[in-house]
Design a protein that fits this description.
The structure is a single chain. By secondary structure, the chain is α/β, with parallel strands linked by helices. The protein has one domain: NAD(P)-binding Rossmann-like Domain (Rossmann fold, 3-Layer(aba) Sandwich). Helices cover 39% and strands 14% of the residues. It contains nine helices and eight strands. It has an eight-stranded mixed beta sheet with strand order 3-2-1-4-5-6-7-8, with helices on both faces. It is globular, with a radius of gyration of 21 Å. The relative contact order is 0.13. The structure holds nicotinamide-adenine-dinucleotide (NAD).
Length: 302
C-alpha cells in the first residue's frame, strides 16, 4: 500500500519543476492527483500552453489517476474551480499542496509596483485562495459528521525565512506564507486539517541560471542533490495520513537533508516596570543585543 493510497491531492503549479515532482510522487504512492498549472513564463507572463496535461499523461502512463486544471490559482474563480475539479472528478479532496509561483527579481530601488503586486499576488494570494476554498470544503465535511484527515503543504523559501538580496517582493510574500501557515494550522485543527510549510531548494527553471554553480548537475552516477524529486518525499509524507499530529511547522528540504526550522521566539528581555526614556531604552537594548544570538545572514548580503 502506498503512503497516499486513496487520497485525492491537488498540487498547484505542477506542470514543471517541484510541483511536477510532487504530483508524480503522490501518484506513485497511490494518490489521485489534480495537476494544476496556468502555464506562464518564468516572470508570470502568459506562456505557451499549460504543461499540466503532459504531467497528467506521465501519471496515467504509469497506471495512475490524474486530471489537469489550467486555472489561475490567484483568482477566486481559479481556486474555487480547482477544489471543485477534485470533488467532481474524484469525489473528495484530502491534500492541497500550494506550490505555484514565479519571480520578478529587482533591487528595491528598481522594483516597480507591478513587480511587487504580481509576486505578492501569485505567492501570497495564490496560497490564500486555494486554502480558503479547500478549508470551506473540509469544514463542511466535518460539520456533516464525516471524518476529515486533511493536509495542506505550503511552499515558502529560504528567502522568506532569512531574506534574500534582490528579492524584496518574493521574500515578503514567502514570509507572509509562513504567517498564513501558522494561523491556518491554528484555525483549522478543529476540523481535522493540518497545515505545514516547506522551504525547498532544487534545480528548476527558477534557479538553474541564477544559482548555476550550486544547482549544477553532478557527474553521472553521483547523487543529484539538487533534483526536485528529492524534496517530494517530505511533501508526500506531510500530505498523507502518516503525518498525523504534525501541524504549524516549517521544514527546509534539499537533497537528502530535512531541517525543522525553529521560528521567532523571545530572546534576552528586560522590563523596567515603567516607561523607559529613549536613552534608557537604548542602553537596555544595547545590553540585550550583546546577550543575544547574532541573526542569520540574509542570502546574498555581503
Ligand atoms: N526551485 C527552488 O530552489 C525553490 C526554492 C525556494 C522556493 N521555491 C518555490 O517552489 C515553488 C515551485 O517553484 P519551481 O522552482 O518548481 O518553479 P517553476 O517555474 O519550475 O514552476 C512553477 C510553476 O507554477 C506555475 N504557475 C505560475 N503562476 C501560476 C498561477 N497563477 N496559477 C497556476 N500555476 C502557476 C508555472 O506555470 C510553473 O509551471 C515556487 O513557489 C517557488 O517559489 C523554489
Amino acid at each position: 500500500m502506498g503512503l497516499a493510497e486513496g487520497r485525492v491531492v491537488i498540487v498547484t503549479g505542477a506542470g514543471r519543476g517541484l510541483g511536477r515532482a510532487h504530483a508524480l510522487a503522490f501518484a506513485e504512492e497511490g494518490a489521485r492527483v489534480v495537476v494544476n498549472d496556468l502555464g506562464v513564463g518564468l516572470d508570470g507572463l502568459p506562456g505557451p500552453e499549460s504543461p499540466a496535461a503532459l504531467v497528467v499523461a506521465e501519471i496515467r502512463a504509469k497506471g495512475g489517476e490524474a486530471v489537469a486544471h489550467g486555472g489561475d490559482i490567484a483568482t477566486t474563480e481559479g481556486a474555487a474551480s480547482l477544489v471543485e475539479t477534485a470533488v467532481s472528478t474524484f469525489g473528495r479532496l484530502d491534500t492541497l499542496v500550494n506550490n505555484a509561483g514565479f519571480l520578478r527579481d529587482r533591487m528595491l530601488v528598481n522594483l516597480d509596483e507591478d513587480d511587487w503586486d504580481a509576486v505578492m499576488r501569485v505567492h501570497l494570494k495564490g496560497h490564500f485562495l486555494p486554502l480558503k476554498h479547500a478549508a470551506a470544503y473540509w469544514r463542511a465535511e466535518a460539520k456533516e459528521g464525516r471524518q476529515v484527515a486533511a493536509r495542506v503543504v505550503n511552499t515558502s523559501s529560504g528567502a522568506g525565512l532569512l531574506g534574500s538580496v534582490g528579492q524584496g517582493n518574493y521574500s515578503a510574500a514567502k514570509a507572509g506564507i509562513l504567517g498564513l501557515t501558522l494561523v491556518s494550522a491554528a484555525e483549522m485543527g478543529r476540523y481535522g486539517v493540518q497545515v505545514n510549510a516547506i522551504a525547498p531548494a532544487a534545480r528548476t527553471r527558477m534557479t538553474e541560471q541564477t544559482f548555476a554553480d550550486t544547482m549544477a548537475a553532478p557527474e553521472a552516477g553521483a547523487f543529484d542533490a539538487m533534483a526536485p524529486e528529492n524534496v517530494s518525499p517530505l511533501v508526500v509524507w506531510l500530505g498523507s495520513d502518516a503525518s498525523a499530529g504534525v501541524t504549524g511547522r516549517v521544514f527546509e528540504a534539499e537533497g537528502g537533508r530535512i531541517t525543522v526550522m525553529e521560528g521567532w521566539r523571545p530572546g534576552p528581555t528586560a522590563d523596567c516596570g515603567t516607561r523607559w526614556t529613549p536613552s534608557e531604552a537604548g542602553e537596555a537594548t544595547t545590553k540585550l543585543l550583546a546577550e543575544s544570538e547574532p541573526p542569520q545572514p540574509v542570502y546574498g548580503a555581503r
